[in-house]
Amino acid sequence: MTAELVRGQNHPLDRTRVEIRITVGGPVMAGVTLGDEQGRLSGVEAVAHPGAPRRTGVEVPRQAAAEHRIAVDLDALPDAVHRVSVLLALPTGVGSLTGFGAAAAPHVAVTGLDGTQIAGYTITGLGAETAVVAVELYRRQDAWKVRAVGQGYADGLAAMLRDQGLPEAAGLAAEIEEAVSLGHARAVPSPVAAGRAAEQAGTAPADPAESPAGGGPVDYRHPKRRAAPAPAPSAAPASSDGSAPVAGDAAGWSMDERLYNQVWGMFEDLARSVAAYRSAANFAESRLEQELDKALADPRNRMGAAADVARATARDKHAALLTQARTALDRDLAQLAAESEVVEPALPPAFARWDSPIWQGYHVPLEPPMALRLGDLHLPEVLDLRIPMLVRLPLERGLWIDSGPAAYAHGLDPERSYPRRELGSALTEGPPDEAELTRLALDTAVAIAARLLAVHPAGEFSVQVIDPGGTAVPALAPLLETGALREPPASGAQGVSTVLEALTRRVDLVQMAVRNRAADSLPPDIDTAEQLLIVHDFPHGFDDRAVTQLRYLADEGPAVGVHLLMVADRAQAQEYGPVLDPLWRSLLRISPVPDAYLGDPWVGHAWTYEPPLVPKDSQVLRQVLGRLAQARPAPRP
Q1: pLDDT by residue (tens digit) across 269-287?
Q2: Do residues 88 and 22 make contact, with C-beta atoms less than 8 angstroms apart?
Q3: Once rounded to an integer, what is the mean pLDDT over residues 527-535?
Q4: Helix, strand, coil distribution of the chain in percent, nearest 5
């Protein structure tokens, strides 16, 4: 249960790797000091700040922003460190805040790496203070706790550092201010609705990314990564320090974690940039309608040269606003495209496309990855920029690949060309028919299952298939021929019952073992490896008991390593009525063809999802599964 602290209160920490998540009403600098038992600093090397963001066991952001995440590994801290103090300071020249009291109260949350909140603290009662010690993590008898501090300093950062016993406080404060000022273009203030503010003022902003209300530019880019100015003509976009975009340029304890955060930062960047463009375009349309209505409100002025001039003037303003909005969007897209070009080749196998060269040098991993690529995402404003869709492992919910044509009626354009490379099949052109959708859904299921097998250590992940009608065998050939699928697909009602009974028993026994801390007492026939159950052609071959067991596995299985991947047409399952609604809602829907159905409640976009299909005629999947089969341990007698 999350503890909401008040000033002076403390709370024990049940883990040593945590994140400090900070939310403020405007751009602030976040830093950390590493003090001894009395909280005294040994020198400038005991301070992590934007100019020196990494110290042993600590990493802080490189810029001012309205939101921050600070990574702390308490086990990695030097033995002399007993207090980890989190500092917030208002940088000069960034935003319009003159004191913390001029904005919403800062909120600090201490969370686990999975986002689980341990303790929270809202810093109230601040006024003219420009620096504050938010919270501190402190060690008592080899145990760590978090304390809500909320100590403000009206004299700023230098006074705060001086109070912690640092003789070089003034010099270090000036160095930090310089580092933040160099990153001024990267500062991310809290979002402001530029179009709405402009509309209230009666004038359009000079640039869609400009905020009259905030008095400065609203930067929609991700606060944890370097941003870039607009690229010069015929020059590659560069980062703010003059260098090219860098793969892994995000916070994290490992390169995989940094790449994961960078990919999701790119997703947020694209979402924000397109949202700003659409908002500016909507404002331009609204402004055009208002000016035309105003010019033509009087029937006596609807004809003649004056009316024509009014119409032309309104349309010229509309075109200028759209041009400015598109220029700002193109600037952001150029940076994202340049970043994608360096990030994509650097992705590890779990994050990479099947056509990435990294698969040619594939080796069976020694430990599972933190996430998996389930496909690509893009928006209609920029069709050639794909953002990897990464989901954390182990999977928290099952997958449902919709093989029914009715589900795609809204996403398929009859006037659009569907080339082979887009559908990953032997189709010529045109949307896929029912048989082709079923085949593509199975191909998608095989590609996802193979990827899950390939990114786990040999023997730690297995796949089973339920195929009541026996129609999936041709598509499952890569799994069957390489031995990745140890048992043939279960067919008929008896096969369905046998597999579901065994997996239900496994979930029950593992749950009891976990609750009673008795993993060693599991029967020897229980396979404790992660398991993926592919269910094809549902609901054929399923009676009421089997449907109940399937719902049980969907709800309880992920917590103990049993995951569902259903290949089904929801329309064909309507005979079960509302009984299946909880099952569908518990699964993540993905499509075997590009389809704009993934809703983004954050900014309201509908993202187009593309499945992770293997390139046509490629042997990479069989090669990877073959190497995995060679490394797989012999089955137990």
Answers
A1: 999 899 889 988 989 888 8
A2: yes
A3: 92
A4: 40, 25, 40
Helices and strands in the chain: count of H runs, count of E runs: 12, 23
The token duo for 69 is 């995440």
Contacts of 324 (CB under 8 A, 6+ apart): 206, 207, 208, 280
As a whole number of angstroms, the distance between CA 505 and CA 491 comes to 20
Report DSSP state, residue 490. B
pLDDT > 90 in the chain, percent: 43
Q: Can you tell me which residue has the tokens 């064909």?
A: 572
Q: What is d(CA 246, CA 265) in angstroms, rounded to the nearest whole number?
A: 13
- Which candidate, 99, 88, 108, 93, places its Cα nearest to that of 154? 99
Q: Tell me which of 200-214, 264-278, 317-331 is least confident.
A: 200-214
Flag whether pLDDT at 221 surpasses 50: no
Burial of 273 (0-12, 13-18, 19+ CB in 10 A): buried
Dist CA 562 CA 67 (whole Å): 36
Mean pLDDT of 324-345: 91
> Using omega within 30 degrees of 0 as the cis cutoff, is the peptide bond preceding 394 cis?
yes
Q: What is the mean pLDDT of residues 90-110?
A: 80
Contact 546, 497 (CB under 8 A): yes
Backbone dihedral region of 93: left (phi > 0), alpha (psi from -120 to 50 degrees) or beta? left
DSSP code, position 316 = H
Give the pLDDT confidence of 230-259 residue by residue, as tens digits: 333 333 344 434 456 777 778 877 889 889
Helix (H, G, I), strand (E, B) or coil at 611: coil
Helix (H, G, I), strand (E, B) or coil at 291: helix
Structure tokens at 441: 């859904």
Please write the tens of the pLDDT for every residue from 362-384: 999 989 999 999 999 999 988 88
Question: What pairs with residue 402 in β-bridges?
Answer: 568
> 200 to each of 117, 318, 490, how far by Cα in Å?
39, 17, 65
Q: DSSP assignment, residue 16?
A: S
Q: Radius of gyration (Cα) for the chain, nearest Å?
A: 28
- Distance CA(565)–CA(590), nearest Å, equals 10
Distance CA 482, CA 474 (A): 14
Q: What is the pTM of this model?
A: 0.61
527 vs 171, 510, 522, 524, CA distance in Å?
61, 10, 9, 8
DSSP states along 352-406 = S-TTSGGGGG----SS--SEEEEEEEEETTEEEEEEEEEEESS-SS-EEEE--GG
**Contact between 450 and 621 (Cβ < 8 Å):** yes
**324 with 206: CB under 8 angstroms?**
yes
Q: Report whether 549 contacts 518 (CB < 8 A).
A: no
Provide the mean pLDDT of the chain. 81
**Better-predicted residue by pLDDT, 446 or 298:** 446
Residue 193 has pLDDT above 70, yes or no: no
